[in-house]
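User: Predict Large ribosomal subunit protein bL21m's structure from this.
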Amino acid sequence: MACRRCFSALARHSSSFLSSNPHSLSLQPLKSLASQLSSLQRVPHFFNPYFEPQSTQHRSFSSRAKDPKPPKIVDDAEEEEDDDGEDEEEDETSDDEGEGEIDANGARGSVDGSSGLVSRAYFVEDKIEEAANIGYKVIGPLEPTDRVFKAYEPVFAIVQIGSHQFKVSNRDCIYVEKLKYCEVNDKLILNKVLMVGSPTQTVIGRPILPEAAVHAVVEEHALDAKVIIFKKKRRKNYRRTNGHRQELTRLRITDIQGIEKPETPSSPKKAKTTRKKPEKELVAA
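Assistant:
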């Protein structure tokens, strides 16, 4: 750039000088100077302090395509058909937006405009599969005519719900972590039975017993007692106190299946025998 400026300045001065004295000088020295300046422009970039690498890049800002296509002549009928097709595509996209997107887990969600969060809506198959992974299956609500509560039986079972194991018997009440997709008074089947036993036999699973099942009823969803979490770092003026209440579900065990139940012998009632009191004899004095 500097060489070009010098060359342009010399050209202006020489043109003004030659215009005043046209016969005093010839153009041969100027041609030699121009050849020298052109040779300076070919100096490598590390000797040229004004070298700009971006200036050597040639970019084309033309909006024309390389291979222009001939214009297409469209009739009025074809334009109407295209408009109808675009309207149908817009309707389909609006329906898809209303239904929501399906994620990798198979759950359909819709974006809330106010908060920007995705509210998930699970399919029935997803709910059943997740409940089976936890260890239960929802049968349905408890009807008023159902007689699920039976008398006590000397049978026990060890069931797994989530990551916890419980030893249960008929009419027992247990608290587990909150079970999703079930409401109060719903009948459940706990299908992850690890062991069942009775006074006469014991059956151990490997790891579960596929033929055994424990029936239960959801009584309520509650909160556990508050737990205080206190954190402290000495000499750092750091103290944090938080509380936590775990969500729980109370289950009532109604029946245990998969093992022979011993018959409870009914104790016969003893007949009351009336004893006659001996009569006192009168003795004469």
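Residues 2-49 form one domain.
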